[in-house]
Amino acid sequence: MPAPRTINLLIVAITTGLIGTALFMQHIMGLEPCYLCIVQRVFVILTGLIALIAFVHNPDPTGLRLYGAITALSAISGGGFSIRQLWLQSLPEDLVPACGPPAEYLFDAFPLIEVIPVLLRGDGNCAQVQWTLLGISIPGYTLLAFGGLAILGLWQVIRKH
After folding, report:
1. What is the distance between the alpha carbons of residues 52 and 49, in angstroms, rounded to a whole number?
2. Which of 35, 73, 96, 119 sits a CA distance of 20 to 30 A from 42?
3. Mean pLDDT (whole number) for 25-29
C-alpha cells in the first residue's frame, strides 16, 4: 500500500498533468476555454494545492484524514462543474443559453463578485464540443479525472494510518 505522502504526490502529479494538458489544448491546439472550463481548472489547481500542502506538511493521521477530506471535497466540487458542462453539451440547440462575452472582458469590465456567478453558470460557449476522443468530450475526461482524485482523497480518509 503506498504511503500517504506518495498518494498526495500522485495527486499533485495528476493535477499538474491535467493543467499541462489544458494549457497544451489552449495554446498549441487553439481550443479556447469556456467559463466552466476555467472554473474546472481552478478546482484542478485547488485540489493539487491541497495535496501539495499535505505532502509538505506530512501531518499525523488525523491531519491526513482532514487533508484527504478537503481534497475529495475539492475534486467532487470540480466534478459538479464538469457535470454541468456535460449537461449543457447534451441540450438541444434551441435550449442552449446564449453565448456571453469572453472571460477576459468580464474580468476587465466588472468586479469579481459579479463575474463569479456568470462563470459558475456557464453559457452557450460551454455547450460547444470542441474536441472528443472515443466519443467523450473534454469535460467528460475531466469528470473522470475528478472522480479518480476524489477516490484518492477519500482513500486517505478511510485507510488505516
Report:
1. 5
2. 96
3. 97
